[in-house]
Each structure stands twice: as C-alpha cells, then as structure tokens.
Amino acid sequence: MKRTLFICLAVLGISVLRPAVAEIFQQKVELYAGDIPNAIRTDNPGVVHDERFNDQFVIGISKPSLTAYLPEGKDKASSAVVICPGGGYFGVSAIKEGQEVAERFAENGIAAFVLHYRMPSPETMNNPDTGPLQDLQQALAVVKSRAEKWHINPDHIGVMGFSAGGHLAATAATHYQKPVLSSLTTELVTPDFQILVYPVISMQSGITHQGSRDLLLGNPALEARVDAFSNEKRVSGDTAPAYIVHANDDQAVVVDNALEYYNALRAHDVSVQMLLLQEGGHGFGMRHPVDWFDGVLQWVTARSN
Length: 305
Prior knowledge:
Layout: E1 5-10, E2 24-29, E3 47-50, E4 57-59, E5 65-71, E6 78-84, E7 91-93, H1 95-107, E8 111-116, H2 131-145, E9 152-162, H3 164-174, H4 186-189, E10 194-197, H5 210-217, H6 223-228, E11 242-247, H7 256-267, E12 272-277, H8 292-304
Parallel strand pairs: 1-12, 6-8, 6-9, 9-10, 10-11, 11-12
Antiparallel strand pairs: 2-5, 3-4, 4-7, 5-8
GO molecular function, one term: hydrolase activity
Protein name: Alpha/beta hydrolase
Domain BD-FAE-like: 68-264
C-alpha cells in the first residue's frame, strides 16, 4: 500500500502562545540495573561545560541517565517519545533540546523521556560506535516494559533527536533488526515513529558533520563503518514513519542530510513529513521564531488516533 507523503515549506513567522493542558510529573528512571554492559568506566554522569544562552551543555557522559516527564490526569494511554539532545557526540544540549522539548510534550498529554546517552569513547566503552545506540535501545526497552505503569500506549513509542542526537535516533530507526545487547529483543528496541530535527544522517564525506563522524567512528574511519552508519543507506519498507525539521541555511549540518533521508524514505514508501525552514541555522532547539513544534504535536497526535 502506498503511504502518504507530505512536504511542508515554512518561512519565518510569529510563534503562537499556548496554554498548558496537563500537569507534569518528573521522575528519574534507572536505565540499567547494576553494571552497564560493555562499559569500561561508568561513574561519570557528565559535567556541565557551558551554561550560556539559558542552556546547559553537558560533556563527558560515561554513565547514562533517563528522565521521565509524564502528563498527569490522563484518562487513556498516551503516546511516548524518547528524546536524544544533540551535541556532536561530544555532549548534550540538555535544556533547549531536552528538558524544554519534554515539557512541551507532557503539557500536551504525551509522555516524554530525556536520554543523556554516553559519549562514544574507547576509554569508557568497548565498542564506541554502538555505545550510544545501546543506551537508546535500552531506554526504548525500559519505556516499553513499563508502559502500563506509566499509562503509555506500548504500540506508539517513538524516538526524537537533534543534530548528532538526530543521527542516534535515525540509527535506532534503521538498526533495530539486531539489538546491541543480546538481552533485548527486536520488538523492544524498534521505535514506532521518528522525529528528527536538523539531524546528522550520513557519515559520507562531503555531507556528514565531520566532528560527529570522527567521534563516533574514529579518524580515519573504516569504509564499512561509514556505510553502516550512513542511515540513508539503511532505510527499508519497515522503517518507522518520520517527521523531519531542518533549516535551509544550516551551515553546521547541511540540509542535504535531511533531503537524503527524505528521499530514501520516499523511495521505500515510508510515510514522511518534512518541514523546511527558510532560516534558522543550526541548534535553535525550541527557540525558533516559527513554532515548528506545533506541527510535531499534530503529527504525533494524528498517528496515535
């Protein structure tokens, strides 16, 4: 069956004020019980490196964390999304690409979980290129296994990522067939949808974000690993539906990443909606003059009905 394809083009506009519609319950969630598999050192939850621009950039994460933002007073099971903030696989932008996103979801009745995943490093993990993916797959498994407790629809749990976090989210959406941990099943780690905001998609020279590639795959990177983590090459007809947001003038992660992924999804008849912002550059998070997030909410809600 042919799936629906939408493309939205947007220019700068005025954000719409919105009332909160749900109270939020915030909770720290244990991601791993006991030692972290494949970890060499697990004692560093991260260091706040930069607090400018009303944000927190956290680096050096070798012990991952998951924080739940749950809407209270729901009379039916909600959708849920695991959020991966960006930071070039060097750190995470904890507020504008994490906390603020989760709060907006929860205010609108959608459960959200902010993941501070481990940074790929041979000093802290045995396999740096799969360490962050392991954490995201573990987070998906934890959320799915506790869906009833948290009043979540277990069949509508997705991933969302910004920049390098977008690469991680897209990796989860295209590398689910063989979970990193043998203790996890494909069903537990497969996202039901993906939301990617100015994402790094490809590891190919000329299009990739070189810093993200170097930290994830090493420099020089093996060609086989470059191809394996170029997610536009991993799309299939079973890949989860996607919502993509990117700015045309992004100089850090060029918009070709979004376009390549969009074209791959389209070629495999995967439902995809894309919002291209005329301006905005890179790293705007929840602070763009256009309320791009409103479209995300509508898309998630429509898919859950």
